[in-house]
Specification:
CATH architecture of the largest domain: Orthogonal Bundle
Number of helices: 9
CATH superfamily of the largest domain: Winged helix-like DNA-binding domain superfamily/Winged helix DNA-binding domain
Largest sheet: none
Number of strands: 0
CATH class of the largest domain: Mainly Alpha
Number of domains: 2
Structural class: mainly alpha
Mean pLDDT: 76
Strand content: under 5%
């Protein structure tokens, strides 16, 4: 039976260097995928991912398993590193990470999107197109979709990561899906008419 993350952390702190290597192997793909889609730049995602695991290694003694799962703690580091990158490189105002403001956000009274997320995302034909479309969403909505559907976090875990109640996360998730559906309807042909697909 595979050791839990917490078991590996305990072994590493007790002197087993290979335990942290296993933690890295276990979570490297998930962290990289989240960061790459969050910042939309594969080369920069490499650097941010490396920075994430370096910070985790340096601060592992501070990790408190009673307050959160290791995966949640690790992704919080990844998220903060990605936000720092966006602030420095793209000059994204801090307020954008704390609001659902913007023309793509629908009110909560709008009905839930009819298409499931997998169906919506299947309409995007390649990774570049996916990145371009997700970039049109407000940052908070984008990260919730990535954490929930790509990294399989629960709403409760996302809430712990973002410091928000689970119900707030669910509300933001619903609005992000509505925004995604609206963006796709605006950019993908419908009934032979409409705008050309993104990045075509």
């Amino acid at each position: 039976m595979d050791q839990s993350d917490e078991d590996l952390i305990r072994d590493y702190l007790a002197g087993d260097e290979s335990a942290f290597a296993e933690l890295t192997r276990r979570h490297l793909g998930g962290v990289y995928s989240f960061v790459a889609r969050y910042v939309g730049n594969a080369e920069e995602a490499d650097d941010i991912t490396q920075e994430t695991f370096l910070k985790a290694w340096k601060n592992l003694k501070k990790y408190n398993q009673s307050s959160s799962k290791f995966k949640t703690w690790l992704f919080r580091i990844a998220r903060n590193s990605a936000i720092d990158f966006l602030r420095k490189k793209k000059h994204v105002p801090f307020s954008q990470f704390d609001t659902e403001g913007g023309v793509n956000v629908l009110t909560e009274t709008v009905a839930d999107a009819e298409d499931l997320p997998d169906t919506l995302l299947m309409k995007l034909e390649d990774a570049k197109e996916l990145h371009a479309t997700l970039a049109l969403l407000p940052p908070r909505g984008r990260e919730i979709l990535l954490l929930y559907y790509t990294n399989e976090f629960t709403f409760e875990e996302i809430g712990a990561l973002l410091g928000e109640p689970a119900n707030t996360v669910k509300s933001r998730h619903r609005r992000a899906l509505q925004s995604l559906r609206k963006i796709l309807e605006s950019n993908l042909p419908a009934g032979g008419q409409g705008h050309a697909p993104i990045n075509r």
